[in-house]
Q: What sequence folds into this?
């Protein structure tokens, strides 16, 4: 059995002191929905006129507790990913968001889709 650690001990130290079976007993997977975007070539140069409205719409979803986090891939900036709370939003609602997103409307996104995602570690699954 793992030794008992003091309150306030760094999480990495707590996890390292647990056996694999003890760690697995603490896992509570959380279903999320992901919206994946594929961007056009030269996205960084072309997004300027649409970026503020794009981020505003994403921030509204965050404020409503619907999206956990979102952001673009970097070097190369060829796409983005949004992680949604599957308990509070449907795939259809996510697709409606994407259809109205200024990046999609203005042709900066060449492809988008929604997929299921099962998170097993991370701060967003401890809620």
A:
């Amino acid at each position: 059995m793992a030794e008992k650690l003091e309150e306030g001990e760094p999480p990495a130290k707590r996890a390292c002191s647990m056996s694999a079976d003890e760690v697995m007993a603490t896992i509570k997977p959380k279903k999320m929905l992901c919206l994946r975007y594929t961007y056009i070539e030269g996205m960084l140069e072309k997004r300027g006129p649409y970026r503020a409205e794009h981020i505003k719409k994403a921030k509204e979803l965050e404020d409503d507790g619907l999206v956990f986090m979102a952001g673009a891939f970097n070097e190369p900036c060829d796409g983005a990913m949004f992680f949604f709370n599957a308990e509070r939003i449907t795939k259809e609602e996510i697709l409606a968001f994407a259809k109205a997103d200024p990046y999609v409307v203005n042709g900066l996104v060449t492809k988008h889709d929604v997929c299921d995602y099962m998170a097993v570690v991370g701060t967003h699954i401890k809620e």
